[in-house]
Design a protein that fits this description.
With 201 residues, this protein is an alpha/beta fold. The chain is built from ten helices and five strands; from the N terminus they run H-E-E-H-E-E-H-E-H-H-H-H-H-H-H.
Length: 201
């Protein structure tokens, strides 16, 4: 059963926010609702680049462990991305990390809540966000570095952001696939894009 909003608010309200040195954080063997799957390593490069550029925007959820350690019960992927930064010498081992410290008896619920409440960003929203960053004065190279992608990837996403608003809405609703949208994005005129879409079988 999905935890209620009231349960989520109660866990958060009762939990202090703090900073813990990275080298005092370990992945919890007990309280992870989404266990690590070694057979399917997560692509961490983009996340690590984002954390390096903007810091950790969402607290890890932890419980106090033995010997001064804190066990991460929600945020394992972020922890592994930070480990990548440390391994590559891009972060110090004692880098302070923002955490939300929950009681052990609420840790599994907190981990479950974070995973079931998480909603993936719609690709159309990502295209639009990239365009807003560029419109706000960021260079293509800056955006690429912040998200761990190449400038060419950023340029492709900007091209998709410029597609006809009607077609982007259709894409958000699942009425048009990404491959088709990319083909239509190669045409600069939004009216022509819509006309070509109407002609497709």
């Amino acid at each position: 059963m999905k935890p209620s909003k009231q349960e989520l608010e109660a866990v958060i309200a009762a939990s202090p926010r703090s900073f813990v040195s990275f080298n005092k954080l370990v992945l919890s063997p007990t309280y992870q609702a989404r266990p690590e799957n070694p057979a399917a390593p997560l692509p961490l490069t983009e996340l690590a680049a984002s954390i390096e550029a903007a810091g950790l925007l969402h607290n890890l959820i932890v419980v106090r462990g033995a010997r001064g350690l804190h066990e991460v019960c929600a945020g394992g992927r972020r922890l592994r991305a930070m480990a990548l930064l440390v391994e590559q010498g891009r972060w110090a081992e004692n880098q302070p990390v923002p955490v939300l410290v929950v009681p052990a008896e609420q840790a599994l619920m907190a981990s479950l809540i974070e995973n079931v409440e998480r909603e993936a960003l719609n690709p159309a929203d990502e295209f639009a966000a990239f365009a807003r960053l560029i419109d706000g004065g960021r260079s293509v190279e800056d955006v690429a570095a912040a998200f761990g992608v190449t400038p060419q990837v950023v340029k492709r996403r900007l091209k998709l952001a410029a597609v006809s608003p009607a077609l982007l809405t259709l894409f958000r609703e699942g009425g048009i696939g990404l491959d088709c949208l990319m083909v239509l994005a190669s045409i600069d005129d939004p009216a022509r894009q819509e006309q070509l879409w109407q002609q497709l079988p």
